[in-house]
Amino acid sequence: MKKSVFKISKMDCPSEENLIKMKLSDIDGINQLDFDLEERTLTVYHVSNITIISDSIKELNLNESLVSSHETDEIIVESKAEQSRLLWIVLIINFVFFAIEMSTGLISKSMGLVADSLDMLADSFVYALSLIAVGGSVLKKKRIAKYAGYFQITLAVLGIIEVVRRFLGFEALPVFSTMIIVSIFALIANGVCLYLLQKSKSKEAHMRASMIFTSNDIIINLGVIVAGVLVNQFSSGLPDLVIGIIVFVLVIQGAIRILKLSK
Fold first, then answer.
1. What is the mean pLDDT of residues 113-117?
2. How far is CA 64 from CA 1, 9, 11, 56, 202, in A?
């Protein structure tokens, strides 16, 4: 077994991780991938030719360089069954809160909650793709990524159109108490998901990507809570529309990254 470390300067988000994961998935002899977004490094445990791995990464144009490559006995492998169990749990939690936030957002007239619900749905897609990555084929993952990406973009664009319509017209104030209460529960749910994912021993792309997406969700939940407070403070629906448009844009950005996986 060899341990090869790459420095990848343009790897700064989960989409690049998934792109690399899929690019290397066709190469036999790769045992494990360990990504570090902060340091922008990729550690590959393999028995295959390092030149093949290096050339494959180079094709992605992410400004990579091989730092080191040597034999090692160091490796930590988490069972596929354990990875799948964790991902199923967080997928179900996210999908349930998608339904809760969408319904309460429509009832309370809060675009912040509606947008956050779509973000939860987007995460459900990410976890579904991660589940496929655990044991599914690359072709199947690419097909689902394509459908998921276009579906998210369609919903987000419709959401942005609704935000603009509400901004130009007169709408009743969103129910700030519903915004705050539901977002607090969503915050707790995302906190549980992050805790479960951090317990995972695996540092493969799909598991690390899932943790990063969940961390971002916690920030969004806090944003909706703050928007709810501001709605009450200033008796204005503008803070709700602002957080809504921000989250919709984030959903579109995430969808574009997922679409890259389908190519």
1. 91
2. 22, 6, 9, 11, 23
CB atoms within 10 A of CB 33: 21
CB neighbours of 20 closer than 8 A, spacing ≥ 6?
8, 11, 33, 35, 42, 57, 60, 62, 205
Supply the pTM of this predicted model: 0.64
- Distance (Å, whole) CA 132 – CA 127: 9
Q: Which of 136, 98, 145, 100 is nearest to 117 (CA)?
A: 98
Handedness of CA 182, 187, 188, 189 (dihedral sign): positive
- Spatial distance between the Cα atoms of 214 and 199, rounded to a whole number of angstroms: 14
Backbone torsions φ then ψ of 145, nearest 5 degrees: -60, -40
The pLDDT of 90-106, averaged and rounded, is: 92
Q: Map residue 188 onto helix, strand or coil.
A: helix
How many other C-beta atoms can be found within 10 angstroms of the C-beta atom of residue 52?
15
